[in-house]
Each structure stands twice: as structure tokens, then as C-alpha cells.
Design brief:
single chain, alpha+beta, 2 domains, 4-stranded antiparallel sheet, 12 helices, about 70% helix
């Protein structure tokens, strides 16, 4: 029995050390953001939500384990939309740099003072720092090399992070005004079209130079190119947005049903956003319960805790509801 409790205590201690290392990593993103005159309004670590918007608060986050291992959300440019790529770069690299610094300092301290806990903090921080060099740091470097990817990622992060205001809406409109005609299927264009179609549905933008029908023809022809989980998520997003767009704007039920069959063939783990998008489409195509969609919008807000995202999807839901009332 004694060995069991000792082992359990070791697990608890290691878990707490891991959470501390994650906290320091996410704090690095917060500091990097502030150095770039940006602010993440929420930081999630373990069962805790740290709020940095109007007043610092700590809340329990017990309904979303998706954020359990650390994430910063609700990015705010603080009403300054100049040089965003360079500023966002600082926010992205802040996490890996903080973890590596903590790890190196921890190892130096351990050499002089020993202590298992100090060593564990150093090693876990180094592991997180090195691992995120292949995610956060890689993303930041790619963003600097190819500003197109960085720009659409920023548009999504900012639009999802806070409720829409005039400055943010102007930045979004400028982004899509500068895109030109989209006729090439790559990651950044798929992201642009996905979010762009939703923005067009709810009236945030008027211009999106893309032939949705030709795009979907190319996507359906090249489905095998979407192999990874991330690319399948992209695929699901663009197909569901395209279906909603042609239903609301073109009343093209026949083509929408064809694309819906294709959508059902995408092998992807279910989550709340997937259930919501399918429920929206089914409410139009198959007389599904639109009230269920309204309930899912509320769940999205409580689950993801991103006010801008919730606002966008609430407006999409309103458009679908209006479409049903008026009839296709």
C-alpha cells in the first residue's frame, strides 16, 4: 500500500511540474504578444482559464479538455492593424523561447543546487521548448517567409478572438480586397475561401473572387491529397462553407446534396463544430430542427470561449434561419 501511495504521489508531482512548465510556456506567448503590442485575452492551462481582457481573472475551465494542455486564445490587435505579421511573429515565438530559457536556467541551477524537482522542471521545459520549435516556431518562420499564410491565419485569429468592430472589419475587408482572383488550390487559399465564404454569407465582405463550383470540382477530384487530420479538417471546413454558400445565395439544392454526400465521406473525428455545421446543412436540405442549431451555437460559445467565433456562427445561423423562413 505504501508503494502505491508513493507512486501516486510521484505521478501527482510530475503532473504539477508539467502544468507549471506549460504555464511558463503559455506565459511566453503572452509576453511575446505584449512585446508586439498585441494581447491574448485568454490563456488556458490545465483546469484553469486566465483572463487578461478588462480585468485579470482566474476561472475554472472544466468543460473543455481540448484546451487542457495549454493554449492562448482571443487575440486582440488593440486597435492597431499595422505591421501585424511582425507583431504576431513575436507572440508565436515567445512560447518556445520562454520554455528553452527556463530549461537552460533550470539545468544551470541544478548543477549548483541539485534537486529532483528543479531537474524535472528543466527537462520538461526543454522538451516543450524543443517540441514547439516544430510547431509554433516553424509556423512563425513560415509566416515570415510566406506572408500570405500568415495573413489569413491572422485574419482568422483576430476575427475569432473578439467581437467585430470597425477597425477589425476594415482590416478584414482590405485583406480580401487584396486577394484578387483565387484559382489555385493550396492551404492558404482554402483557408481564405472557407472563412471568406462565411464572411460573405453574413455580410462582412462583398468581394470574394472565386468560382465555388470549379473549386469544389477540383477538391472532389483531388480528395486523396487530403491525407492528414489537419488537411481533412480544412477539407471539411471548405466543403461545409461551400454548401451553405450555394444554398443561401444560389438556392442550389441539387448541387448542395451532391456535395453533402461528399462531405459525409470525409473520415474525420467528430467534434462540436462538425456537428454544428452538419446540423445547419441538414436543417435546409432535410428539414432538420433549426432550433437544435441555435442550441449548438450556445454550446460553441461555452466550449471554445471565443467571442468573435461565436458571433460569426450566430450570424451564419441567423442567415440559415432566415433562408428557411423565406424558403429556397
Amino acid at each position: 500500500m505504501g508503494n502505491f501511495f508513493n507512486s501516486l504521489l510521484d505521478v501527482i508531482v510530475f503532473f504539477l511540474i508539467f502544468l507549471l512548465a506549460v504555464f511558463l510556456h503559455e506565459l511566453g506567448h503572452i509576453i511575446g504578444g505584449r512585446l508586439g503590442n498585441m494581447r491574448f485575452n485568454n490563456m488556458f492551462v490545465g483546469p484553469f482559464q486566465f483572463c487578461f481582457d478588462n480585468k485579470f481573472r482566474i476561472k475554472l475551465n472544466l468543460n473543455n479538455f481540448y484546451y487542457f494542455f495549454g493554449v492562448c486564445t482571443n487575440l486582440d490587435a488593440l486597435d492597431d492593424y499595422e505591421n501585424l505579421i511582425e507583431r504576431y511573429f513575436k507572440a508565436l515565438v515567445g512560447g518556445p523561447i520562454m520554455s528553452l530559457i527556463v530549461g537552460i536556467i533550470g539545468l544551470i541551477v541544478y548543477l549548483f543546487f541539485k534537486g529532483t524537482i528543479i531537474l524535472l522542471i528543466a527537462l520538461v521545459s526543454l522538451a516543450i521548448g524543443l517540441a514547439t520549435c516544430f510547431s509554433d516556431l516553424k509556423k512563425a518562420i513560415e509566416m515570415k517567409k510566406n506572408s500570405d499564410v500568415g495573413r489569413v491565419s491572422l485574419v482568422m485569429a483576430l476575427a475569432y478572438g473578439k467581437p467585430m468592430d470597425e477597425g477589425l472589419l476594415t482590416y478584414i475587408k482590405d485583406h480580401f480586397n487584396n486577394l484578387g482572383t483565387i484559382n489555385k488550390m493550396n492551404t492558404e487559399n482554402i483557408m481564405n475561401i472557407d472563412i471568406g465564404l462565411r464572411f460573405k454569407i453574413i455580410g462582412y465582405i462583398n468581394n470574394l473572387e472565386v468560382d465555388v463550383y470549379e473549386l469544389m470540382k477540383a477538391i472532389m477530384k483531388n480528395k486523396k491529397a487530403f491525407k492528414s487530420r489537419g488537411s481533412k479538417n480544412l477539407l471539411f471546413g471548405i466543403v461545409s462553407s461551400s454548401i451553405l454558400y450555394i444554398l443561401i445565395n444560389d438556392s442550389n439544392v441539387k448541387k448542395a446534396k451532391e456535395w453533402y454526400e461528399f462531405l459525409n465521406g470525409i473520415e474525420i473525428p467528430k467534434d462540436l463544430s462538425i456537428d454544428y455545421n452538419k446540423a445547419l446543412i441538414e436543417s435546409i436540405l432535410f428539414d432538420g430542427d433549426i432550433e437544435d442549431c441555435g442550441k449548438l451555437v450556445t454550446k460553441l460559445d461555452g466550449f471554445y470561449k471565443m467571442k468573435g467565433y461565436s458571433q460569426i456562427e450566430a450570424k451564419v445561423y441567423q442567415q440559415v434561419n432566415q433562408c428557411l423562413r423565406e424558403g429556397l
